[in-house]
Amino acid sequence: MTGADDDAALVVAAQAGNREAWAGLVHRHARRLAAYLGARLRRPRVVEKLVEEAVVTAYRHLHELADPREFAAWLRRIGANCALLWYRENPHERLSEPFPVELCGADHDLAARLHRLEEALAALSDAQRMAVEGSFRGGMSGNVLAESLHLEPAAAQRLVEDSLVALHRLLGDVTT
User: Fold this and answer.
1) Which of 3, 16, 136, 159 has an alpha carbon 20 to 30 Å from 148's alpha carbon atom?
2) Domain that holds residue 114
3) What is the dihedral of CA 121, 126, 132, 138, to 10 degrees?
4) In sequence order, what are the residues at sequence separation of 6 or more whose Cβ sits closer than 8 angstroms to the Cβ of residue 161?
5) Is 145 in contact with 135 (CB distance < 8 Å)?
6) Is 91 buried (19+), middle (13-18) or exposed (0-12) by CB count in 10 A?
7) Which residues of the chain are under the pLDDT cut of 70?
8) Cα dihedral 8→13→16→20 (10° resolution)
9) What stretches of 90-152 show up as alpha helix (H) in DSSP?
10) Which of these three, 89, 111, 138, is where a domain ends?
11) Are 62 and 14 in contact (CB under 8 A)?
12) CATH no. for residue 37?
């Protein structure tokens, strides 16, 4: 059974009122949606809010999903629409924000390394950022990652590998 088949079974159950099925869909796709949105909008707090909005919107409109196998793409479109609405309502907001250094405590070295990582991620192409976000934040691989990137699995894997090489080059030696 493929991921789309698993999703379809959960969607049908959720459309019939099974809340555990809905929870399974959310558990499977929320992190992937965050990775998708995070690659475009590098503002973790905003992305978190947008994922929540997308999940609520999807739940309210789940009965409108005609092909249960299309759940992942449908949820991504809802998330993208939520992001577009957010941007239209906040046109002067920056599309990225620095990592909240307060989470580093007194570790100034960690804060500096995170700043370097942010700069390196920002220097990647959109496709490279999508591959890195999907792979690491979204926990995707194989066919799932390839589908989200609209690539064949081998091409998706190559993109992840090339992106990591680019990051390594941009960061230099991070072990010092």
Assistant:
1) 16
2) 101-171
3) 120
4) none
5) yes
6) exposed
7) 1-4, 95-100, 173-176
8) -130
9) 108-123, 126-132, 142-149
10) 89
11) yes
12) 1.10.1740.10
Amino acid residing at 148: S
pLDDT of residue 176: 44
The reply to whether the predicted model has a pTM over 0.70 is no
* Total domains present in the chain: 2
- Residues 115, 70 share a domain: no
Using DSSP's 3-state secondary structure scheme, residue 2 falls into: coil
Q: Is 129 exposed, middle or buried (0-12, 13-18, 19+ CB in 10 A)?
A: buried
Residue 176 maps to a domain: no
Residues 81 and 102 sit within 8 Å (Cβ to Cβ): no
State residue 27's pLDDT score: 93
Supply 165's token pair. 């090489």
Q: Which residues contact 144 (CB under 8 A, 6 or more apart)?
A: 3, 32
Task: Give the whole-angstrom CA distance, residue 77 versus residue 154.
Answer: 25
